[in-house]
Amino acid sequence: MDLVVRNGTVVTASGISQTDVGIAGGVVVQIGGSMPEDAPTLDATGCYVMPGGVDVHTHLDSNDFSTRSADDFGTGTIAAACGGTTTVVDFCAQGRGESLADAIAHWDSKAEGKVAIDYGYHMIIVDMNDAVFEELGTLPDRGITSFKIFMAYRGMSMVDDVTLLKSLDQAKRHGALVMVHAENGDAADYLRDKFVAEGNTSPYYHALSRPPRIEAEATARAIALAEIVGTSIYIVHLTCGEALDELMRAKRRGVDALAETCTQYLYLTKDDLDRPNFEGAKYVFTPPARTKEDQELLWDGLANRVFETVSSDHCSWLFKGHKDKGKDDFRKIPNGAPGVEERLMMVWQGVNAGRLTPTEFVDLVATRPAKVFGMFPKKGTIAVGSDADIVIWDPEAEFTITQSEMHNAMDYSSYEGREVRGIPRHVLLRGKQIVRDREYVGTPGEGQFLRRDRYVSRA
Ligand code: DUC
Ligand code: ZN
Ligand code: ZN
Ligand code: ZN
């Protein structure tokens, strides 16, 4: 036995028990029963022992919005680790005119030698043509079993319905899951340009130019197209009651429509975009933050298993140097906010509030995303044979979220000043301790690429 995690309370998606966990060769080899006395020990007294978080939505070393994000695969995955996340699935973004093979090679070069935790890729398609279409079918053989398609951003990445239909069909044929950015891009562009023409250029108008119906319409349409093809679909960053209604209607019809929400939609509102001194720009992400009422509906959706996961959509655009490009025109503010490190702590506040049980928490932040994206049971659980990716969670520790305590390369946290109870204290990656007392003690580059299994459609 290489390590025994002793005296903790093991939480998985199926239950809780006071038991020790034995690890050898990077995997869990024993749960409960008598452990060798002389094995190295990690003491988890007073703590929960949970599977490491699985964040299936990050943008590390991103070049979107014509700038390079602050976090690369080094700082981004160290931050993830310090936040209790041991697996990310990052968006590998095709450049315009680029083949998917070249996009993957580009992403591999970004990750090479830097990654602190295990990682996979989804493929973002921005430029669909016949060759790319054929290439899509080859991605599952490379362990990339999900593609993101945009219904917004005309001229950049937006696709028409035919392209979306064809992509869904191709995904169905090859065992991949299509993830959609569901917003009616033309409607958003129309409102956005109208606001600016009227002289309304502040960050708040970002939220007003992308109202819930823009998201709900596209959500319903994306689901309908999947239904027409007879396949599954995953809605990324679902934010509001109106879109949630469309999702639930589809589920009631028996469609295999899946969705995530993201941490920011549970805590931030559109009023945050109205903060003075251009601070609102920090909260410009797409789709925008909504209302308190929407937050309640999202929490209900989490408790009722309508969502598969809460992901971070971690984007690291600096307040000074990136966001301020849009000082005079909100359209130029790079979209996105950080949160890969804060995610687990913030979602855990739902446990403190009685909205989720610890078991449901584990299911949402680790188990279900691992299942949906073809990584289970290697990732997302504590079971004999699973990778020993483990977070020792101290439910009583109090912590104030502040940027100086974060391990990313950002200059702000979306949750600055929030007091939380419950923190990831120690983290193991395949049995090796990579975080001790919330500090990274691993070796960058030890993260491994995950070839993910194909999606098995329930459609
Ligand atoms: N969609 C994302 O998923 N992230 C950032 C911006 C966007 O449109
Ligand atoms: Zn998106
Ligand atoms: Zn994203
Ligand atoms: Zn630190």
TrEMBL record:
It is an enzyme of class 3 (hydrolase). Pfam families: Amidohydro_1. Its EC number is 3.5.2.2. Carbamylation allows a single lysine to coordinate two divalent metal cations. The keyword Transmembrane helix does not apply. It comes from the Bacteria. Signal peptide: none annotated. GO terms for molecular function: dihydropyrimidinase activity; metal ion binding. NCBIfam families: D-hydantoinase. Belongs to the metallo-dependent hydrolases superfamily. Hydantoinase/dihydropyrimidinase family. This is Dihydropyrimidinase. It comes from Amaricoccus macauensis.
